[in-house]
Amino acid sequence: MKRKFILFLCLITMFCSLRAQQTGKLYLSGTGNDNTVNWDFFCTAGANSGKWTTIPVPSNWELQGFGKYNYGFNKEENKGKEQGLYKYTFKVPADWKNRKINIVFEGSMTDTEVKINGKSAGETHQGSFYVFRYDISKLVKLGSDNLLEVKVSKYSANQSVNEAERKADFWIFGGIFRPVYLEALPESHINSVKINATANGRFEAIVNASGYYNRIETKLTDENGKVFGFIPDRIVMYDDNKNHYIGYTLPKPKLWSTEFPNLYTVTFTLYDGGKPVHLITKKIGFRTVEVKERDGVYVNGVKMKFKGVNRHSFYPSSGRTTNKKISIADVLLMKEMNMNAVRMSHYPPDGHFLDVCDSLGLFVMDELAGWHGTYDTPTGTKLMKEMMLNDENHPSIIFWANGNEGGHNRELDHLFAEEDIQKRPLIHPWEVFGGFETTHYREFNYGIGNYDHGHNILMPTEFLHGMWDGGHGAGIEDYWNAMWNNPLSAGGFLWDFADQAVVRTDKNGELDTDGNHGPDGIVGPYHEKEGSFFTIKEVWSPVFVEKREMTAGFDGSFTLENRYAFTNLNQCTFNWKLKKLKAGTDAAFKSGKADVPNIKPFEKGKLKISLPGDWRSFDALYLTANAPDGKELFTWSFPIIMPKDDAEKIVVKTASGKVNFKEDAKVYQVSANGINLTFDKITGLLQQVQNTKGVIPFSNGPILQEGVNNFKGFTQKMDGENLVISSKFDKKESWNTLQWTIYPSGWLKMEVEYFPSDYFTTFVGLNFSYPESEIKAVEYKGNGPYRVWKNRMKGTQFGIWKKDYNDSATGEAPWQYPEFKGYYSNMYWCEFTGKQQSFKVVTDQEDIFLRLFTPKKSKDTEYDNMSPTFPNGDISFMNSISAIGTKTQKPETTGPMGMKNIYYDFDKAPSRALNMTLYFDFSTNTSSLRGGTTKQSQ
């Protein structure tokens, strides 16, 4: 009977609530850059100024061809200080009579004066990124035309606002860049609610209301609309501010986390007697955030490691004006990289971005603006409260940040705890504050070394400053291993998410990053994926797969570590695939699913694959882990066949003809099966290659990189049908040796044994000359399709890859990825497609790097930390390669993987030398390896 009564009461409440007035909403602008409304507009200076025209709202006026573009670092005398004058005529619905009518601006840059029908709506709002409103009930005319006039000053009359916002390290725009709308409230209405829903099921709310009422009713429904909790609350007394406390404990709610973003809808209904007069709804999540001093950050009782990135509200063609589709795309890309956190840099975001973080699951650090400079206390207090009022109920927000890198007005600190019912932790990014060490861009040895001996919770709010191809992925494996294994580490936030190249309407649509100032991200301006995207995806995978070789004794078992916080690995799915790789065609394969083990968070266990009996006849095994929602976490690849096995199949040694040899005082000339080879008799270097179609311009090698080309004493002899040209080993003068073998087939074998010239080397290997102007494409078997660096090896897959030539530089137009030039790991073979002729190179050794030319140097910073170091020559085959730095760090300071290669003194003993074996096919028939025009999908 009791259950029936409660059900009846819920049905009556639902029926009455439907008749309560909701807050009316009427957009005067559009809702984002994909939905705008034209307003009359006048720009006072710069492009297209001095005349009335129209402009889409919301927008930044620079992107519409008005005013002057500015980066925050521009000198004061070069800053655009234009104003924008807006006019718009609108009608207020006649049935809004006896309602409170507000006009709401979600964001306007920077000082905003508002008039309705010629009368001021209130004091000028100062501050760009905050939702503000005016009560215009007495200024509007119902059912007839009203005139809205807005004057927006790009440069603030309040110098503290300029210090906090307009001198910052990001693009500075002007205009009404977020939506504008009217809201209508009944005479008795709810002004605001503050909600705290915790993991133990405790629900608390402070409801502020106006007018006449005697009861507030609270109802929670789940994602299916089913009533989860019903809280009738009869108001007997209330304080002078009409703040009403509601408290209730609900049984076993589904908790909110980034892994399981369970949301509930809470509806507050205001009653006057038995009549519902106003209702509002909010999306909430039950979760608890707790900071334990000298320990860590706990969410729902679990200690967290934050895998985060910084993110600006930005889109190239519209500046700070975005839309919900962009927010969804951004969060999905972050989740695809296995991130679980995002920091708002350096101001509050659009409301729809927080909505998406709530629904898709991403921890958020929300930030009051202040980049090195601070708001004065009265202004900062007002803006902080506006941020809190708009953002506070989002379960995704688990941190507040008061400014950035010295932009901390400490007089505002107390307000965060006073205003926030949830008492979320407050961060001062770049400072040691509140038990957190958040210092930015600590070098690995200095930072990690100090971290190991410190006492604060370690959570750098910016680390690994991306720039071009450096940063982000380069060094992250070292940093993350240290962070993961340090009990005091709470993870950190990369800088930053996306390239901020803005469309210059004053420069024929050029994408401008202001040189190296505009933040350089993991993805391009239109979200093009760079190589670091996939490195991060692998390093931050919540499923960690222990390294495993595909030996003859492999029984299909993999050791897994569960790096989820709330997910058992038996909630994931695992698929495997065996492939026989063939250039240019689809690979033959067998596939299946693996039985998923019961592995709890932070524990290890075994995954067993039931492999077919012929599994060793395949080239590679691929293992894919999928999250509970079915999205791929990562696909790991494991070569089965070795390079020597491929070489045995590919290299042709015999033919019906024979090897012909002649020499003069300077050169050896060798011919076989239509191939003519010329070698320098003194140095042994390959000078020229020619076949029946003409010269192949591959020559001048092998030149040792960071080794001495002291090949000497060459002799030649026949070894059966093969011609062998070899140098003489001498411990004092010619300790590096070179041997060529020419087979009757025309194939050429090169064997080099050598010693690096130094104990520390940037790279070691062999260089050849080949004109870049001649190359058209390459197809190779190895790891790809993205290039690698010594300190960024993760994120690739083993396969056969076809890459057409491009000359793109990372982080610059045309943002073409994958790049062509650079290092590629674990090469088995490569076919070079020239504009005139092709040739191929095969190795029988593991772990050989292919180097393709020297990437174009990007416009670098004054630090010149990430300029890539490359060998001499054009095409190289390397035993080791160089690392790359970040904007703020040299390669060697990003961790052990970024340091130079170390080779011990081998005492010039031939048995201890490095070695390289390559086979060359210069014939006119390269069809055995040639494939299609697109890279093979793995």
Write the layout of secondary structure elements.
Layout: H1 2-19, E1 24-27, E2 37-43, E3 52-57, E4 70-71, E5 83-91, E6 100-105, E7 108-109, E8 111-116, E9 119-120, E10 132-135, E11 145-153, H2 159-166, E12 171-172, E13 175-176, E14 180-185, E15 189-197, E16 202-210, E17 215-221, E18 227-234, E19 243-249, E20 264-272, E21 275-284, E22 289-292, E23 296-299, E24 302-303, E25 306-311, H3 324-336, E26 341-344, H4 351-360, E27 363-371, H5 377-391, E28 397-404, H6 413-419, E29 426-427, E30 432-433, E31 436-437, H7 444-452, E32 457-458, E33 463-465, H8 476-485, E34 491-495, E35 502-504, E36 510-512, H9 531-539, E37 543-545, E38 557-562, E39 573-580, E40 588-593, E41 604-608, E42 620-626, E43 632-639, H10 643-650, E44 660-663, E45 667-672, E46 675-680, E47 686-691, E48 694-696, E49 699-705, E50 715-719, E51 722-726, E52 737-742, E53 748-754, E54 760-761, E55 764-769, E56 775-784, E57 797-804, E58 822-824, E59 829-834, E60 838-843, E61 849-852, E62 875-880, E63 901-902, E64 914-921
Parallel strand pairs: 25-26, 25-34, 26-27, 27-28, 28-29, 31-32, 33-34
Antiparallel strand pairs: 1-14, 2-3, 2-5, 4-12, 5-11, 6-10, 6-14, 7-13, 8-9, 8-11, 15-16, 16-19, 17-18, 17-20, 20-21, 22-23, 23-24, 30-31, 35-36, 37-38, 38-41, 39-40, 39-42, 42-43, 44-45, 45-46, 46-47, 47-48, 49-55, 50-51, 51-52, 52-53, 53-64, 54-63, 55-62, 56-57, 56-59, 58-61, 59-60, 60-64, ...
Helix pairs in contact: 3-4
